[in-house]
Amino acid sequence: MIRITKQQSVGVDSAFARVPTQAEVARLAGVSQTTASYVLSGVVNRVSLATQERVLRAAEQLNYQPNLLARGLRGSSTGLLGVIVRDISAGAVGSVCRALLHGAPQVGYDMVLTDAADDVKTLLRLAGLMKSRLCDGIVLVGELPEEDILWEDYARLGIPTVAILHGGDDLPVASVLLDNEQGIRLAVEHLRALGHEHIGFVGSSLLRGVRQRAELFRAVMRDEGLAVREHDVVEVELSREGGAAGLVELLGRPRPPTAVIAATDLLACAMVHEAARRKIAVPEQLSIVGFDDVPEASITWPPLTTVRQPFKDFAVRALEMFTSGAASSTRAHRHVTLPPELVVRESTAAPTRTADRLGGR
Q: Which of 171, 238, 276, 305 has the fewest Cβ atoms surrounding its Cβ within 10 A?
């Protein structure tokens, strides 16, 4: 026979304890239920600071939790934002999410984070679920493959949305974008100032924003009066294996470039590691520039020169769009473009004659 002691039964009872109400908070604070409702709903301009503090102390003492579902059904803000990411393991995505999670409470939001795992149907399902749970809005972090098929269905949800780490300013939702052209220009100008004229590029067609960087590389090289050899622009998978393969392909050219720009830090770090495996000195024999400035960029060896995306600013501006109402506005020009910054570390240097002997490896 299983015996339940009195102490154990108290624990069971406490697990199913009745949820305290606003009326009980009001009684404990010594205020009217209307006043308590104002404070607990965030309408504090009608209540003195001292009264607010009494109500909040009473709510904390009773472990009061607001009924977000009821608030949402009444049309009030629930204070929840959904975040749907392309792939949480992607370095840039993770950096933006950390900034969002840090900044949201400072402007009165809590966040629910989910991963679409690179799948459009999963993203649409998650977005519908977040709307049904009465989130005030959704932040989409990172593009998905085949994203062009997403937007028509997504628009039917009718939920305020801000997109981050997406390419182009033609999105049907508000967005915070990076000036990709300026980022590529900073990388090319840096290498040219060091003396490089033969510059390669390793990119990927998987995502629109990453694909744009290859197109912008060609345009910037022409603007700078530098030759663009099509066989020195390599397209690979967006992975560590892809980065290594891109380097191998460039080194196999009869005349390899003396410097390479990668469309992402993931590809650039993979190239640095592959170069080390092949005993190619970076930057003495080959300079490498990345794009993003994810945490791994500063701890690879040598530390990576890269184009820094302002991840914290992305999060701040996206949250401002929700607090200002711009995320739900139907007006045009809801796109904010932020400038990048070049971070010079140890993976770039002036070209040397030894770079001419890299061909055929």
A: 276
What integer is the mean pLDDT of 271-286?
96
Q: Any idea which architecture 80-178+311-338 has in CATH?
A: 3-Layer(aba) Sandwich (3.40)
Mean per-residue pLDDT, 84-89: 85
* Global confidence as pTM: 0.76
- Asked, colleague to colleague, whether 80-178+311-338 and 180-309+343-357 share their fold, the answer is yes
The top-level CATH class assigned to 180-309+343-357 is alpha beta
Q: For the residues of 289-324, what is the DSSP string, one character each? A: EEEE--HHHHHSSSPPEEEEP-HHHHHHHHHHHHHH
Q: Which CATH superfamily is domain 6-66 in?
A: lambda repressor-like DNA-binding domains (1.10.260.40)
Q: CA 64, 68, 72: angle at the middle one, nearest 5?
A: 150
Candidates 158, 164, 106; CA nearest to 135 is: 158
- Domain boundaries along the sequence of the chain: 6-66, 80-178+311-338, 180-309+343-357
Would you say 309 and 295 are in contact if contact means Cβ atoms under 8 Å apart?
no
Rounded mean pLDDT of 134-138?
A: 84
pLDDT, position 135: 83
Residue 225 buriedness (CB in 10 A; 0-12 / 13-18 / 19+): exposed
Burial of 4 (0-12, 13-18, 19+ CB in 10 A): exposed
